[in-house]
Amino acid sequence: MTPRSARSNPLALAVLTCLLERPMHPYEMAQTLRARAKHESIRLNYGSLYGVVEALEKRQLIRARETVRAGRRPERTIYEITDAGLREMADWLSELVAAPTKEYLQFEAALSLLPALPPDEALAALKQRRESLEIEIALLDGAVAAARAHGMPRLFALESEYVQALRRAELEYVERLEKDIESGELSGLDQWRSWYAPGGERDLDAHASDEIPGADPSNPSSITS
Amino acid sequence: MTPRSARSNPLALAVLTCLLERPMHPYEMAQTLRARAKHESIRLNYGSLYGVVEALEKRQLIRARETVRAGRRPERTIYEITDAGLREMADWLSELVAAPTKEYLQFEAALSLLPALPPDEALAALKQRRESLEIEIALLDGAVAAARAHGMPRLFALESEYVQALRRAELEYVERLEKDIESGELSGLDQWRSWYAPGGERDLDAHASDEIPGADPSNPSSITS
DNA sequence: ACCCAAATACTCCTTGACGAGTAATCGTGA
DNA sequence: TCACGATTACTCGTCAAGGAGTATTTGGGT
């Protein structure tokens, strides 16, 4: 079985897809990925790239084909994909598409700690986020339209369409939350206000004494489940 | 100035918010965060926790108040938040809410490499994802309803509402993509099919020779920008 | 009275990400 | 023609994340 940890870095998958096209040396992979704007979707830097390539070679998913030296410049090692590499690539990519994975988003973390901020500060920050999102969405729309105008098929811009869809959903969510705070409709708002009212500070987390339905009682040894 | 790198791990922020309520030792912070289901939103494990706490102490955002020893068990060091810590907490949390950050999502990576899979395999994987998403959304809906029924205010479940909104948007996107591939409406589909047709393999990335509008020509030295 | 599982409260070590650094060569404008 | 900045192609050191391990104690059943 392929160990789970080996599939942690998507950059390795990107390397495999590069070598699917033709043999390359690592630096050329980086150029190729950059030229196709993959670095917008996949973390890519030299420090990791060479490490990832070595790991793939150790796992026999790629093999060094030749090493060329032009003048006295550092030698380029050209890699090619193996049969096992082809299989691993298809399998990994299929899995990545088929199975949603838990992601730890910054904004999710922020929302989960939001009560640690006074309501008015939280509201101000939310307004800023809304504006930033509006700008970002407009820019992304423009970029997609430009790509379309240049004749780039949608097939090669699926990831930006997806990100755009997520951003729009986030904007709607932020708009709704902002309104619900301002209108006082959000339940728990009274408690929240009272913690920061002069002379308040009583009653912190009266809610937390109850059992929280979202928490599963499994996983005794591991903390993260 | 607070160095950017110091704000990389949201677990540190969670620690600060714990100590905002009352002094605690690290293990108790973990219990508290777990009891409130924060580990669903914030990566939490002991290995990181103690390192993060040490770093916060070094930055003078928290300080050790006392160390107690019960019997011969390992001693517990109880920490409290400092004034600088209070300020850092509010500032960091505000920033996290106000400024959207670039996230590298697994599915985004997968979509950006999708052409490396034959169209029919891609389609099969997408169908699987759709089903998984439908199930997950239903489960989350149930959990949120249960929490509501138990009287937990919305304020303390904002993060799951947000995740739910993202999942729904993703489901809609996947449904649309599936349909556009099946109906043949997706532009580039003909090229895609031809690469995997028997005798095909010609014309890989004819599109890539053009300048890609999504790629910004900045950042010469750094690869990731 | 005793046994075993779970909880308490950490420690340690391996991996791996990341960014800065390096050294040679190529292009280009004055 | 020649300086100088960009490009090519990688290397190295640091630092943090994460999981597995450890030693003690409490609790619950028989």
Query: What's the shape of chain A?
Result: elongated
Mean pLDDT of chain A: 88
Beta-strand level of the residues of chain A, as a percent range?
5-15%
Helix content of chain A: 40-55%
Sequence of secondary-structure elements of chain A:
HHHEEHHHHH
Strand order of the biggest β-sheet of chain A: 1-2
Distance between the termini of chain A: 22 Å
Structural class of chain A: mainly alpha
Number of strands of chain A: 2
* Count of helix runs of chain A: 8
What's the structural domain tally of chain A? Answer: 2
Q: Identify the biggest protein-protein contact and residues per side.
A: A-B, 104 and 104 residues
Oligomer: homodimer
What is Rg of chain A?
A: 24 Å
Low-confidence stretches of chain A: 206-222
Largest sheet of chain A: 2 strands, antiparallel
Secondary structure layout plus pairing:
The structure is a homodimer of 225-residue chains.
Chain A: H1 10-21, H2 26-35, H3 46-58, E1 62-68, E2 76-81, H4 83-98, H5 106-112, H6 119-149, H7 158-182, H8 189-196
Antiparallel strand pairs in A: 1-2
The structure holds a DNA duplex (30 and 30 nucleotides).
